[in-house]
Amino acid sequence: MPVGYKIVPGGSVEESAKSTSSVATVVPAALLIMLIVLMVQLQSFGRLFLVLSVAPFGLIGVVAALLIAGKSLGFVAILGVLALVGMIVRNSVILVDQIDTEIAHGRAPWDAVIEATLHRFRPILLTAAAAILGMIPIAPTVFWDRWPIPSWAAWRWPRC
Cα(48)–Cα(89) distance, rounded to whole angstroms? Predict the structure, then answer.
């Protein structure tokens, strides 16, 4: 490039970076609140770690889906990952609670796991399907396509 010219990201790249940074500032506080609520609800560090240990398995599906689709981890994908982690944690809490209920009714631990899974399979599947179907409309689009940025707004005059 000639002297005095430079390339400055603008338009959707700049807006996406702003949105990602605004989400990133809130995520630590949200995670802390989520941990506190889960600890109060589960009343055990062991159950808390069990529930949270399942969340990273969702990342396997996220990475596979992004690779198959040829997409990058953009703003919409980050929101999808956060929603997926929330759904996985919620489903884990439901199963752990049902397992505890089955054990309280006198079942052996392994039988309680099987019975809880059979008992809660359909509700978990239906809520997961509803969440997936709700995200399909935003999946193929870029977040900024809804609010198009005029072509002149993406242009930055070089500083001399």
Answer: 10
- State the pTM of this model: 0.70
State the virtual CA torsion across 34, 35, 40, 44 in degrees, nearest 10.
150
Look-up of token digits 């949270």: 52
Closest by CA position to 97, among listed 36, 51, 32, 49: 51
Average pLDDT rounded to a whole number, residues 28-48: 90
Between the alpha carbon of residue 70 and those of residues 56, 63, 84, 111, the distances in Å are 21, 10, 19, 42
The position carrying tokens 């949105």 is: 19
**End-to-end Cα distance, the chain:** 13
Find the mean pLDDT for residues 89-106. 93
Tell me, what's the pLDDT at 66?
83
Name the nearest CA neighbour of 82 among 131, 153, 140.
131
